[in-house]
Amino acid sequence: NFKLLTLPEQIALQIRQDIYNESYKKGEFLRETELAKRFNVSRGPVRQALSQLANEGLLEFQPNIGVRVSDHPSEEAFSLIVKLRRTIETFVIKSIFNKLNDSDLGEIEGLLEDVRESCESGDIHQLMLRDYAFHEFFVEKYGDKHILSIWSTTMSRMMMRYTRFADLMNSYEEHRAIVEAIRQGQKQKTVQAFQDNIQ
Question: Boundaries of each HTH gntR-type domain copy (predicted)?
């Protein structure tokens, strides 16, 4: 179910996962040369990956010092981020609902299956990435790069301090409710299922 990623996207995906599972701690500096050696690439793709993660808010550039892992959002900021993400996804699903076809539904069901596997195995860090991929499908389907960029920023910052995956099977049921509502062709029920899942 994973789309083909460019080299910088592959590197960004791995570093993002390392930040989520705290292999890289907040405040820790990342060195381009060390990352290039780790991924066996030149510094160009690493630089692109770091820039992407900085745009998402996971990293921050400090002039003449380097790139460090960002601090977690405050309670107030986190609350606002959740509202923003909910607004974006509500807008997106309302906009694309009537355009979803059988091929889309098949892909969505595959993404749901990935979420289920992660919930059953208890792999929270894998679940975070698969939850990201599930929701990303809908935002990408809308097809506006600016909205996708804003959304990915909210999603990444939420992931930095996510605790909702404590009840894994409940997380799966929330995603299953989204897919079931889409399958039934019930737009308002789908919107509500998205809103229930984003908190």
Answer: 5-72
Provide the CATH number for the domain around residue 110.
1.20.120.530
What's the number of domains the chain is made of?
2
Domain CATH number, residue 58:
1.10.10.10
Residue 93, in any domain of the structure = yes
pLDDT digits (tens, 9 = 90+) for 81-132: 999 999 999 999 999 999 999 999 999 999 999 999 999 998 888 888 899 9
Q: CA–CA distance from 101 to each of 58, 91, 144, 182 (Å)?
A: 34, 19, 19, 10
Strand partners, 60: 68
Distance separating alpha carbons of residues 18 and 129, to the nearest angstrom: 11
Are residues 99 and 60 located together in one domain of the fold? no
Mean pLDDT confidence for 44-49? 96
State the Cα–Cα distance between residues 160 and 163, nearest whole angstrom: 9
